[in-house]
TrEMBL record, chain A:
It is found in: Nucleus. The active site is at 424 (proton donor/acceptor). The keyword Transferase applies. Residues 96-124 have a biased composition (Basic and acidic residues). This is Histone acetyltransferase KAT5.
From TrEMBL, chain B:
Keywords: Nucleus, Transcription, Transcription regulation. It comes from Astatotilapia calliptera. The lineage of its organism: Eukaryota, Metazoa, Chordata, Craniata, Vertebrata. Belongs to the enhancer of polycomb family. Residues 311-329 have a biased composition (Basic and acidic residues). One of its GO terms (biological process) is regulation of transcription by RNA polymerase II. The keyword Transcription applies. Residues 311-354, 367-390, 484-509, 553-579 are annotated as: Disordered. Residues 7-148 form the Enhancer of polycomb-like N-terminal domain. Its main location: nucleus. GO terms for cellular component: NuA4 histone acetyltransferase complex; nucleus. The keyword Transcription regulation applies. It is found in: Nucleus. InterPro entries: Enhancer_polycomb (IPR024943), Enhancer_polycomb-like_N (IPR019542). This is Enhancer of polycomb homolog.
Length: 534, 602
């Protein structure tokens, strides 16, 4: 690709423009996904563009220089869509009819390409077309694996995605969605990332790994005219898209130093505005207070004697501990924790105070103290069976089994309470993966342990699984479906365990060293309805 | 043939699902198509994010490999963990406590300043240190105060001097520095804080405003039980508060009465002084007179807390249910009392003008505020009281001014009714004698009295051959012509019924013999009237009069159905069914009555 820098001065790139932008993928290669310009700024007479890669998670959004823009394929914002303003609400949101039509066409094309590819590869059943957007060089799949896969995951999951998506937009939240155009870059095309938009260039870069879970918010239910209104007061996740303006669409903190870690935030967080311009925001590792400089942090540490989260330790096994913090009694810490967590949770809302929540902070002990690894929050009283509001493993600890540990702990609490629970919705991508994985392992553990009684086939009801695990019934069903265990056979439903599933499960369980030991939990649920409100 | 109807039944969560291994069902794939019937569950993600490239890739990778591959995971921005100065920043000397950490509420509220010194400040303080005494912490505290003292408008120097305790010179330096720094700062405060909501509601959409207070109440739909409970709590609170008001009013009244009593006592004292009644003779006389009016029949009424002082009350007026009518009466009784002075002054003090000895003072020892004298005045409490307290009105209660000694081992058993061989006094009036009770009016036969626990009078009955005859005796006949010259308060006296054989009595020889015996004083006849207690013997002349007056209301009322506790003073109350345990001829002791009160004997 040629450098566009020289030409760029002639054309003004404004917010809302779309064009391919260079980025490095996990295979150390460069690629040119389509991106949308969300903001433009000038730093020492050089223009910087904040881009959102369409159909990639917001956490990958970044400031890029002109060199990384492919000016040749620049698309200006549609006429009917105003350029995004600083206060959001208007911009290049799609959803205008023609845009939808355009998208439809694009998808059509995409599917065709997909089919061609499939045929070329000679894979029997056409799998999962829109769901698995043909990723870059599809890692050469061992064809045998692919074949078996096809049997296990039949086409059931194929087109409905598409359909339901459309339906959803038209019905459920049709109001909101259609009248208020989503903020820039929010809508993704189902299938962009097609080959023509992804130009691969060889490069190297470290692949990043992740395993955070962020349960993001309820679908929007905001007022239809875009007038900002206060969001609902229950739950922890954004339900109001009107606040999802251009400011909150963009990361505002460059780097956070927490203990021995430097974290690159993924999303906006409402730290005091004067601190957002700092190259590094310093946090006290134990009380999570934010400080503008290392000097301040040093001074703070002479005064802060915390060496663990300021709550009651309700679990300890080995070096892993859990602390319970009341959002009403310990506002400072709770707010600091929320500010930090918001950096990694897209849909988390900090609109309201922390009073109705409990925070369970998981720590790892060493000679310096109890270091925060992750946490989840939980409504003291949930009207909707939520046993988790937000849940997060801090990035340095991700992909090491801590997330599953947090989830397991949340269900142990529910077991003590004698309730079933489910995480608050919406789930994030990482949240979905983690929960699915936890549910799968938990349920398979039970199914594999079932012994035939009296020579009869072992059998179990969904309700029983739910009671044993405290996993809400709906989640049990969705997991069984996801694993494709439910089959209709000779007039009744049965659960079938394929060899692949069994082997995969055994392999996964071998890797799962970190487990919660219920004996180490010292927890008495409180009846919050009898206490003062929150 | 196996592919049946396309539409399968809905999945039933309560129906057992048999678990198969796929290899056991080779024909399973034939049925695969029907699986469509199981509705697809939503993932719980935002629809638009569900289709994100990396997620879909990860999901499909998971499906293909059964696990995630490193290059198939969702990429995230990087994090580093190699801060070199970390070890010097945080001390590494923290020992894990053996116990689970339990934090005390409020232990976190340290007095440390929120402001943290930065490099500029450090330079400034170091420079200042050359001129005057100041530490980093002191500087931080000063800035902290200045910051917290300022709202939108920074504090002025004079205000600063009020806020800070240091000497003026230091204040001036720090204040100037602070003002400059604050002016140059973009932020509103030098202590960075999360933006607060504005009162006017203009900040609803400011993305930097966080942690707003929840103004509306959360739905209480789910907590209706809770609402009910709190409503009841409110009711109880209201009741308690109104009770407190009543108690305060009563205390006020009591204190007024006490003052009045004091004045009257003083008046009496002065009068006696004028009359030169130094020996207390006049006083004693008055007391004797007054005793006619004010009987000292403490035991006759159920003694409960709130009536501790009812011995001053007119018995006739006494009502078993304490109502408001009680209040004015109390006043009256207190008015009366000063004239009365020590009730125990039946044993007059002859030693000079001893009007107030310690004992007398105790008489005026009204229930103090801690005594909760009125605690039971209010409705509702009495039933509960009875449940908790089986002895009810007869439960032992300490009386102000009395000393209580433990029973002495060597004296146990030396009761007046015990024989000499038991160390007792064997007083005649406690021997077995013919006994008649008043309610129902009949002769019981032979019985003897003794005083039981709490001053109850017990009657031990003995079986004799004459029981039939005794029961046939007409009590009225026995009752008739008493000259009442006997020395005791009981009617143990020579009963002189000369005539009147009951016509019904059959065995006339025996009967007449008995009557004769009785008449001729050879047999003692006991007819309880009032207290059988020797302590009160000296008040005797009154007693009869009183007992007569008491008898009237008592016998008139048919008290049978009333609960015992609320009954009219149950003097020596007869056994309802007198024959309960007569079988053996031995003395069968039956607790008949319960009106004794021994407090006076200390």
């Amino acid at each position: 690709m040629t450098k566009m820098a020289d030409n760029s001065s002639s054309v003004e790139i404004v917010e809302g423009c779309r064009l391919p932008v260079l980025r490095k993928n996990q295979e150390h290669e460069d690629e040119w996904p389509l991106a949308e310009i969300l903001s433009v700024k000038e730093v020492s007479s050089r223009k910087l563009y904040y881009v959102h890669y369409i159909d990639f998670n917001k956490r990958l959004d970044e400031w890029v220089t002109t060199e990384r823009l492919d000016m040749k394929k620049l698309q200006f914002p549609k006429k009917d869509a105003k350029t995004p303003t600083k206060n959001g609400l208007s911009g290049s949101r799609p959803s205008s009819p023609e845009r939808d039509r355009e998208r439809e066409r694009e998808r059509e094309r995409e599917r065709e390409r997909e089919r061609e590819r499939e045929v070329k590869r000679k894979v029997e059943p056409a799998p999962v077309a829109p769901q698995v957007p043909p990723v870059i060089p599809v890692p050469s799949l061992p064809s045998s694996a692919e074949a078996t896969q096809a049997a296990v995951f039949p086409a059931v999951r194929e087109t409905p995605t598409f359909k339901s998506r459309e339906d959803h937009e038209l019905t459920t939240n049709g109001n909101a969605r259609r009248l208020i155009p989503a903020p820039p870059g929010r809508k993704r095309k189902a299938n962009c990332g097609g080959t023509d938009e992804m130009i691969k260039v060889l490069q190297y870069n470290k692949p990043q790994s992740a395993s955070v879970f962020l349960p993001p918010p309820e679908d929007s239910q905001d007022s239809s005219d875009g007038i900002p209104s206060a969001p609902r007061m229950t739950g922890s996740l954004v339900s109001d898209r009107s606040h999802d303006d251009i400011v909150t669409r963009m990361k505002n903190i460059e780097c956070i130093e927490l203990g021995r870690h430097r974290l690159k935030p993924w999303y906006f967080s409402p730290y005091p505005q004067e601190l957002t311009s700092l190259p590094i925001l310093y946090l006290c590792e134990f009380c999570l207070k934010y400080l503008k400089s290392l000097k301040c942090l040093q001074r703070h540490l002479t005064k802060c004697n915390l060496r663990h989260p300021p709550g009651n330790e309700i679990y300890r096994k080995g070096t892993i501990s859990f602390f319970e913090i009341d959002g009403r009694k310990n506002k400072n810490y709770s707010q600091n924790l929320c500010l930090l967590a918001k950096c990694f949770l897209d849909h988390k809302t900090l609109y309201y105070d922390t009073d109705p929540f409990l925070f369970y902070v998981m720590t790892e002990y060493d000679s310096k103290g109890f270091h925060i690894v992750g946490y989840f929050s939980k409504e003291k009283e949930s009207t909707e069976d939520y046993n988790v509001a937000c849940i997060l493993t801090l990035p340095p600890y991700q992909r090491r089994g801590y997330g599953k540990l947090l989830i397991e702990f949340s269900y142990e609490l529910s077991k003590v309470e004698g309730k079933t629970g489910t995480p608050e919705k919406p789930l994030s991508d990482l949240g979905l993966l983690s929960y699915r994985s936890y549910w799968s392992q938990t349920i398979l553990e039970i199914l594999m342990d079932l012994k035939p009684d009296n020579g009869e086939r072992p059998q179990i009801t969904i309700n029983e699984i739910s009671e044993i695990t405290s996993v809400k019934k709906e989640d049990v069903i969705s997991t069984l479906q996801y694993l494709n265990l439910i089959n209709y056979y000779k007039g009744q439903y049965i659960l079938t365990l394929s060899e692949d599933i069994v082997e995969g499960h055994e392999r996964a369980m071998q890797k799962r060293h970190l487990r919660i030991d219920p004996k180490c939990l010292h927890f008495t649920p409180k009846d919050w309805s009898k206490r003062g409100k929150w | 043939m196996s592919k049946l109807s396309f539409r399968a039944r809905a999945l039933d969560a309560s129906k057992p699902l048999p678990v198969f291994r796929c290899e056991d069902l080779p024909d399973l794939h034939e049925y695969a198509s029907i699986n469509r019937a199981v509705p697809q569950m939503p993932t719980g993600m935002e629809k638009e994010e569900e289709s994100e490239h990396h997620l879909q890739r990860a999901i499909s990778a998971q499906q293909v490999y059964g696990e995630k591959r490193d290059n198939m995971v969702i990429p995230v921005p990087e994090a580093e963990s190699n801060i070199t100065y970390y070890d010097s920043l945080y001390p590494g000397d923290f020992k894990m406590p053996k116990q689970l950490i339990h934090i005390q509420p409020f232990s976190l509220d340290t007095e440390q300043p929120d402001y943290d010194l930065d490099s500029d400040d450090e330079a400034f303080v170091n420079k200042l240190k050359k001129k005057m005494e100041i530490s980093y912490l002191q500087f931080e505290e000063m800035i902290d105060r200045l910051e917290k003292g300022s709202g939108q408008q920074a504090v002025s120097l004079p205000e600063a001097k009020l806020l800070l305790k240091e000497d003026d010179e230091l204040i001036k330096e720090v204040f100037d520095y602070w003002s400059r720094k604050r002016k140059n700062s973009k932020a509103n405060s030098l202590i960075p804080t999360v933006k607060q909501e504005k009162r006017d509601g203009s900040s609803t959409s400011d993305p930097y405003v966080a942690f707003r207070r929840r103004t509306e109440k959360m739905q209480t739909r789910k907590n209706r039980k809770n609402d009910e409970a709190s409503y009841e709590k409110m009711l109880k609170l209201r009741r308690d508060l109104s009770r407190a008001v009543t108690i305060l009013e009563m205390i006020k009244r009591r204190e007024k009465s006490k003052r009045e009593l004091l004045h009257l006592t003083l008046e009496i004292f002065e009068k006696r002084n004028v009359m030169s009644d130094f020996g207390g003779e006049v006083m004693a006389e008055v007391l004797a007179e007054r005793a006619l009016v004010r009987p000292q029949i403490i035991p006759l009424v159920p003694l409960t807390n709130q009536y501790r002082h009812q011995d001053h009350m007119d018995l006739k007026d006494y009502k078993s249910k304490p109502e408001k009518t009680e209040v004015p009466r109390q006043k009256r009784k207190y008015e009366k009392k000063p004239k009365v002075l020590p009730p125990s002054s039946g044993t007059p003090h002859h030693t000079g003008p001893v009007v107030f000895n310690a004992k007398d003072l105790n008489q005026y020892d009204f229930p103090s505020s801690d005594d909760e004298p009125f605690s039971q005045l209010h409705s509702g409490s009495s039933e509960a009281e009875e449940e908790n307290d089986p002895d009810g009105a007869y439960a032992f209660r300490r009386k102000a001014g009395c000393q209580y000694y433990a029973a002495r081992q060597d004296r146990v058993g030396s009761w007046p009714w015990c024989g000499q061989w038991e160390g007792g006094l064997a007083e005649a009036r406690f021997r077995y004698s013919l006994t008649t009770v008043t309610m129902p009016r009949r002769c019981l036969g032979m019985a003897r009295r003794r005083v039981g626990r709490g001053g109850r009078v017990l009657l031990d009955r003995a079986y004799t051959d004459f029981d039939n005859i005794f029961h046939g005796l007409d009590p009225d006949m026995l009752d008739l012509p008493f000259a009442s010259t006997s020395e005791t308060n009981t009617s143990e006296r020579s009963s002189s019924f000369s005539s009147s054989l009951s016509p019904s009595s059959p065995t006339s020889t025996d009967l007449s013999q008995i009557l004769l015996n009785i008449k001729s004083c050879r047999w003692r006849h006991f007819r309880p009237r009032t207290l059988p207690l020797h302590e009160l013997d000296n008040a005797h002349p009154l007693f009869r009069r009183l007992s007569r007056s008491l008898k009237r209301p008592l016998s008139a009322s048919t008290t049978g159905g009333q609960p015992f506790g609320s009954q009219r003073p149950g003097r020596v109350v007869p056994a309802p069914t007198p024959v309960a345990g007569r079988c053996n001829g031995d003395k069968v002791s039956r607790q008949l009555a319960c009106s004794g009160h021994m407090s006076k004997c200390g």
